[in-house]
Write a structure and sequence with these properties.
Layout: E1 2-10, H1 16-27, E2 33-36, E3 41-45, H2 47-62, E4 67-74
Antiparallel strand pairs: 1-3, 1-4, 2-3
Helix pairs in contact: 1-2
């Protein structure tokens, strides 16, 4: 199991919350555990699930325009 902490930053838009919420909705289709915080989202699952979720999150966000995504990944058991 791995864990990812991800922050998504839509650029050049006045609808950042909408872009973020649509991207988070894409996680629901990945079958991965996640929790949404005020500044980031934590994703937990198998390597395949987490990497696929990150790809889906970024892909959905970039459909709305320019975006920056910051990710920290760990395999530490107590994270």
């Amino acid at each position: 199991m791995i864990h990812a902490e991800v922050a998504l930053y839509p650029l050049k838009t006045s609808h950042a919350s909408e872009v973020i919420n649509n991207s988070i909705e894409a996680l629901r289709n990945q079958g991965v555990q996640f929790s949404v915080g005020s500044m980031d989202t934590h994703i937990h699952g198998s390597e395949e699930q987490v990497w696929n979720s990150l790809r889906s999150l970024f892909s959905t966000a970039q459909n709305s325009g320019e975006v920056s995504m910051v990710v920290t990944i760990t395999n530490a058991a107590d994270y």
